[in-house]
Design goal:
The chain has about 650 residues and is of the alpha/beta class. The protein contains 22 helices and 25 strands. The strands form 7 sheets. A 6-stranded parallel beta sheet has the order 3-2-1-11-12-7, sandwiched between helices. Strands 16, 17, 18, 19, 22 and 25 form a 6-stranded antiparallel beta sheet that branches. Strands 5-4-6-8 form a 4-stranded antiparallel beta sheet, with helices on one face. Helix 2 packs across helix 3, helix 6 packs across helix 10 and helix 13 runs antiparallel to helix 19. Bound molecules: 5'-O-[(L-methionyl)-sulphamoyl]adenosine (MSP).
Length: about 650
């Protein structure tokens, strides 16, 4: 039994936000679930590394595209480690094997006539790497990101997408599970497929950062054709060793955000049809995590950093929130308040209390914290057991349809029922009379067994918590933690030995946390939300906020030695000097507020340390392309910082 699940491959971005984590966490929960069910799982994720946008950013920063990307990809992998993402393979579209596979795919499609050469005239949105026709634009701008589009005219290769229109419609109609949820299926059929497909331009000559077409190397392969191929190149498609491809393709589920369903249910299957390969069994288009109704994006300054949240509340809590809050397929709103409210209500109150109360009562009422094996049932047991087994079945059905939030609801129905059972059976009253020992033991057994079942069911979503519960119930990983053990009630041996441990989800002081989170995010997003924080909150925070950064944070700052080769005063100000600074083969113009400390003549010839990847800013009409590091003290003295020994301009400071 194999199971192949993929996420989209991510654009390298210095700051993947909580919305990005959503796709990956969802795929991870499915991968973990299928592993628990005994499947041989392949879970693929990775990075989409070609395209004009990245080429431009690398040029801006004075590095090669791959130097620029390598640094970011490390950050992305670290984020997935932080979020406990258990991917089996991480593909980069700059991997040699991928490049070769794309070149072979392109050539095969060309040789069989599915790709042909012609001329393209059209409107291109660089950030989205997408072409649009005139009537697709909204107010003359890109319909997806509202930015300007550019007119592009170039000799190009085209993919005969139109040829596959009928076959695609037929496939979708005959396979209702192919595009899920249903609403996205209708959207694809009615808005794109039935109105008619046009052939797709699949090569570029206007920039270089892409996979060269082997038989015409002034062309590079269109980034979506390149990117979509990752799902099969990662398995060795068209390589010398295609064992994985034979084993795992077609994918069971390809999970994508709603805005890229179109690429995955039209272009991608058409490519596969042209190659004569089977189509994925399902493409699932999930909704977005939004902030105040709008998509999170760096340009809007409303991104939420998942690492900050994980550091504060742990990855299990964040994973739980993401998958619980958003009805899979629809959009869900993110607020810090909703996050903390859920952590407190569902995790600290419901699950945390069930665990701590069960374990504490066994320890308190029975010697050595061990339940006696002579136990009696009560009038609530039968219905509790039935509810548990019913929700196990429903949870499994929901998982198979990727209704992850409904699956979590099933688990929480059990948790809440067990908490209610405590109130109904009132163990503290039973404990008062020795004649009720067997009854009391029976109640605590039902709670322990229920909790054991719950702890297994939450594992795909919250991989760290089960171990903590098992330690408190005296269970070791094995038969008693296997998925099959939850299909009937009563697998747990009667002589449960409880051992109180740490509180699995401590309650959070919501007011204090909200203020602190607001502060951290505001700093990150560089808006002035800070003004909103009350004075008291600010005072209490100022004492505590000397934030540590990780080495990954630090590595985002690129520092280099520069040599000042020219310097003059900026007119109409007595504060600023504008310097021309040589850094390696390049020179940069940098404006610095140092005119009170250095004359231009003094500054020329100095070797200084420059921040080279700072976004350029305009100061007094001059574009400043970096920053000279200076040390300053409370007396108002300032000196520029430079290397202590001989060092060439351009050397990296790290
Ligand atoms: N590189 C393309 C995919 C190519 S696949 C062959 C891409 N990359 S992305 O980095 O922009 O997005 C990766 C995934 O993150 C997408 O599924 C996207 O929908 C998802 N999300 C980005 N922001 C999101 C939210 N705010 N909420 C939920 N998911 C979001 O697209």
């Amino acid at each position: 039994m194999t199971y192949y699940i993929t996420t989209p491959i991510y654009y390298p971005s210095d700051k993947l936000h909580i919305g990005h984590s959503y796709t990956t966490v969802a795929a991870d929960a499915m991968a973990r679930y299928k592993r628990l069910r005994g499947y041989d799982v392949m879970f693929l994720t990775g990075t989409d590394e070609h395209g004009q946008k990245l080429e431009r950013r690398a040029i801006e920063e004075g590095v090669t595209p791959i130097q620029f990307i390598d640094r970011i990809v490390d950050g992305i992998k670290n984020l997935w480690t932080t979020m406990d993402i258990s991917y089996d393979k991480f593909i980069r579209t700059t991997d040699k094997e991928h490049v070769k596979a794309v070149q072979k795919i392109f050539k095969r499609l060309y040789e069989q006539g599915d790709i042909y050469k012609s001329e393209y005239v059209g409107l291109y949105c660089t950030p989205c790497e997408s072409f649009f026709t005139d009537h697709q634009l909204v107010d003359g701008k890109c319909p997806d990101c509202s930015r300007d589009v550019e007119e592009v005219k170039e000799e190009s290769y085209f993919f005969r997408l139109s040829k596959y229109q009928e076959a695609l419609i037929k496939h979708i109609e005959e396979n209702p599970d192919f595009i899920q949820p249903q609403s996205r299926q209708n959207e694809m059929l009615n808005n794109f497929l039935r109105p008619g497909l046009e052939d797709l331009c699949v090569s570029r000559t206007s920039f270089k950062w892409g996979i060269p077409v082997t038989f015409d190397d002034k062309h590079i392969v269109y980034v979506w054709l390149d990117a979509l191929s990752n799902y099969i190149s990662a398995l060795g498609f068209m390589s010398d060793d295609d064992t994985l491809y034979k084993k795992f393709w077609p994918a069971n589920v390809q999970l994508v955000g709603k805005e890229i369903v179109r690429f995955h249910t039209i272009i991608w299957p058409a490519m596969l049809l042209a190659l004569g390969e089977p189509l994925p069994k399902q493409v699932f288009g999930h909704g977005w995590l939004v902030i105040d109704g709008g998509k999170m994006s760096k340009s809007k300054g409303n991104v939420v950093d998942p690492t900050v949240l994980v550091e504060r509340y742990g990855s299990d809590a964040i994973r739980y929130f993401l998958l619980r809050e958003v009805a899979f397929g629809q959009d869900g709103n993110f607020t810090n308040e909703a996050l903390i409210t859920r952590i407190n209500a569902d995790l600290a109150n419901d699950l945390g209390n069930l665990t701590s109360r069960t374990v504490a009562m066994i320890e308190k009422y029975f010697d050595d914290g061990i339940l006696p094996v002579i136990q009696e049932t009560n009038e609530f047991d039968e219905s509790v057991q039935a509810l548990i087994i019913d929700n196990v079945t429903k949870m499994e059905q929901n998982m198979d349809q990727l209704f992850l939030n409904s699956a979590l609801e099933n688990i929480w129905l059990i948790i809440r029922r067990l908490n209610k059972y405590i109130d109904e059976t009132m163990p503290w009253i039973l404990a008062k009379d020795v004649a009720n020992r067997a009854k009391l033991a029976g109640v605590l057994y039902t709670l322990s067994e229920g909790l054991r079942i719950v702890s297994i069911m939450i594992e795909p979503f919250m991989p760290r918590t089960p171990d903590k519960i098992w330690a408190q119930l005296g269970i070791e990983r094995g038969e008693l933690t296997a998925w099959d053990s939850i299909h009937s009630f009563g697998m747990l041996p009667r002589d449960v030995q409880a051992k109180k441990g740490e509180n699995i989800f401590p309650r959070i002081d919501i007011k204090k946390e909200l203020a602190e989170l607001d502060f951290v995010e505001t700093k990150d997003n560089k808006t002035n939300k800070e003004d909103k924080i009350s004075k008291e909150d600010k005072i209490s925070k100022d004492a505590s906020i000397v934030e540590n950064i990780t080495i990954e944070d630090f590595s985002k700052v690129q520092l280099k030695v520069g040599e000042v080769i020219k310097c003059e005063k900026v007119t109409k100000t007595d504060k600023l000097l504008v310097s021309t600074i040589k850094i390696g083969a390049q020179t940069r113009t940098i404006v610095s507020g140092i005119a009170k400390y250095y004359t231009p003549e003094e500054f020329v010839g100095k070797k200084v340390v420059v921040v080279t990847n700072l976004k350029p800013v305009k100061l007094r009409g001059i574009v400043s392309e970096g920053m000279v590091l200076c040390a300053s003290d409370d007396n108002g003295d300032l000196v520029a910082v430079g290397p202590l020994g001989e060092m060439v301009a351009g050397a990296i400071v790290k």
